[in-house]
Predict the structure.
Amino acid sequence: MSGNGKLSNIYLYTRYERFWHWLQMVLIFLLLATGFEINGAYTLFGFERAVKIHNYSGNTWLIAFAFFVFWLFTTGEWKQYVPTTRRMFAVIRYYGYGIFRGEPHPVPKRRDAKHNPLQRLTYLSLAAILLPIQMVTGFLYWAYNYWPGWGLEGLDLRVLALVHTAGAFAILSFVIVHVYMITTGHTIFAHTKAMITGWEEVEEEAAVEEWERKAA
């Protein structure tokens, strides 16, 4: 949990950001649940239904992601994901040590900087590398019957499936860590509430700086 610094209530997440977040949550759950079922891990929906749900969810995510990218560049929100090393080690130290001592977060959220350096690097890697790879491999797998007409006979379906499955495990790992991280606010449900209402209580920078001076 965060420290006992002064808190300020700010409107941090727009309606679209919240909609995109919860839509992703639903789609990722459906894709993971049906994807692992298709691979024979268990039986939940039944194979044929799982394939249909997986395909519809994947295509929906692909379209929604395109709108998200459009929103990023038309609103200037892409700046929130520009990576930085400033105070990176302070954030790593906080999550590895300081958080258990009740220290305040070294990089409090602001409207123009919603993500700390570690989040920026993680979200940028997801949005620019992992998700595009997952979507492209999933789309190609779905369009396998069209490969001859597209001149893609040289692709190996088994390799494509392996890359797609590896991406699924990477996303699952992110989800597990993400679920843990959302409980690390000043209360266990603070971050979840913020993603529902848009308003979040954040530690004031002055309070963080005051704690750092005392700790020095």
Summary: The domain at 7-215 is CATH 1.20.950.20 (Fumarate Reductase Cytochrome B subunit). Residues 47-75 form the longest helix (29 residues).
